[in-house]
Amino acid sequence: MQLADVVPSLxxxxxxxxxxxxxxxxxxxxxxxxxxxxxxxWWPSRPHGPLxxxxxxxxxxxxxxxxxxxxxxxSKHGQPFALCNPSFYPQVLLPPEHVGWLLxxxxxxxxxxxxxxxxxALPFLAPGFDNYDHLxxxxxxxxxxxxxxxxxxxxxxDELEHAADEALGPAGDQSWRxxxxxxxxxxxxxxxxxxxFFGVSLSRDPKFVYQVKTFTRVTGAMMILVSQWVPWPLKPxxxxxxxxxxxxxxxxxxxxxxxxxxxxxxxxQTKTDPPPTDLVTWIVDxxxxxxxxKKVRISALVVRLTLxxxxxxDVLIAMTQHLFLDLLSADPKHAYPDxxxxxxxxxxxxxxxxxxxTESAIRESLRLHPLSDRMLSRRVVQRPGxxxxxxxxxxxxxxxxxxxxxxxxxxxxxxxxxxxQPFRFVGKGAGEENKGVLVPATxxxxxxxxxxxxxxxxxWFGAHVMKVAVRVILMNYxxxxxxxxxxxxxxxxxxxxxLDVQVRVRGRK
Length: 509
Hints:
- Its cofactor is heme.
- This protein is of the alpha+beta class.
- Helices cover 55% and strands 10% of the residues.
- The chain has helices at residues 3-33, 50-59, 66-73, 99-104, 112-120, 122-125, 131-147, 149-168, 181-198, 200-203, 206-229, 235-270, 279-290, 298-329, 336-350, 356-368, 404-408, 459-476; strands at 41-43, 81-83, 91-94, 110-111, 177-180, 374-380, 385-387, 393-395, 399-403, 477-479, 489-491, 494-496, 502-507.
- Strand 11 and strand 12 form a beta hairpin.
C-alpha cells in the first residue's frame, strides 16, 4: 500500500472519530437531563429529545435570566425546577421553603466544597492544587482579616485618599472632568486592598499592581469560561490549556513576592522586630504555626494568597460600582449622595463608626445586583442520591442552588422589590431587617453573601472597605447624576456591571 493511499484512509478515520466524539458530546445534555425524575418541572420548557435539550442549553450561553423567571413561575409556589446548563450538568433550583433543609444537610450528602470546585474550576485549571487545604487556609486567614479591621483602618483610609486623589483628581479641584466609573473604582479599591494585604511599598509599585490585576482578570475569566461555559466532557482538556496563562502569572508573582515572604519569615522566626500588620504576616504566621518543624514553601503560600486575596477584590469592585450606579441614576430630587455625605461627615466629626444609611444603601444594591443569580450551591455526593422535601429523587452529581435574584425580588420578602430604595433597611424594613442591620448580615431572604456556615468569610472586611471608600469619595467629590441606570450583563451565572459608563466628577471645597 502506497503512502498516497494511507493518508486519505487515516484522515477519514480521524474525521470519523471526531464526528462520533462530537455527537456524543452534543448528546450529553439529554443524557444528563434524563437522570432527573419525570415529575420535575423545567424552565423554560422540558427538553424533549436531544435536539431540544441542546437548543435550550445553548440559549443559556447568551446570558439568560431563566433562574429569575423560573423562580417567579415555579419556586414562588413552593416547587423546585430544573434548568438546562451550559456545563451539561443537571441543575435544580430549590424554592425558599427548602433553604433550611438544604443548609442542614451534612457535607457527605450535599457538598459545598465540591460545588465550590465546580464554580471555581480549580481541579481543571490546576489539577495538582490541594483545594481542601486551601479552603481551611481561607477560613483562618479571613478570620485574621476580620479581627484586624480596626488595626488596619488607618492604612486603609490613607490609601483610599491617596488613590482617590490620583484617580479623580485633587479633592479641592472644582473643575469638572469625565472619567470611566469602572476604571476609577478599580484603581481606588484595588489600591486600598493591596495596602492592607502587602503594605505601602507594594501597593504603590506600578509593576506589581499591573501583575496583580492581570493575574486577577485572566484567572477570573478562565474560571468563568471553564466552570460555566465548557461542557463537562471537555473540561479536563480545556482546563489544562486555560490554566497555562494562570500558571505563568503565578510564576511572575512568586518571583516578585519571594523577597517579601523571606523577610517576613525571618522576622517572625527571630522575633527581633515586630512584623507589619498585613496579610503576608498573617499567612506566614499561620503556616509556621501549622508546620513548626517543616520549611515553609513560599511558592505554595504565594499561590494560595493570590486566590484568597486578589480574586475577591474584583468582586468588591463590582459591588462598589453597583452602589455608585444606583446612587447616581436615582431621581436627583431624592439627593441620596448628599444624605450619605452628611452621614459620613457626622460619623467623622463624632469619631463614631455606625453609618446605618450607608450600610442600607450598600445592602440595597447587593439585593438588586448580587454577584451571581444563583447562591447556596451544593452538589449531591451521597450514593445513589437524595430525596427532596417535595419527594423527588435526585441522583448523585446533580447541582442544587437557590435563585438569589428571585428571592431578592420577591414581594413577599421586600415591598416594591424592583424599586431602588437605598434606605430600605433603615427603620422599618422587611421582616427581621430592622434598624441597624449590617451589610454582611445574611438570612434566607438575603443571599448576596450566601447564608449559614458557608457564608462568605471575607464579607466583613469587604463591607468595611466599601463603607470607608464611600465615605472618602462622597466627602471629597461630587458627581453629576446619570439619566438612567445602565443595564448589567449576565455571563453564565455571573452578574457583571457595565464597564463603559462615563461619569462627570469634581472635587469639593
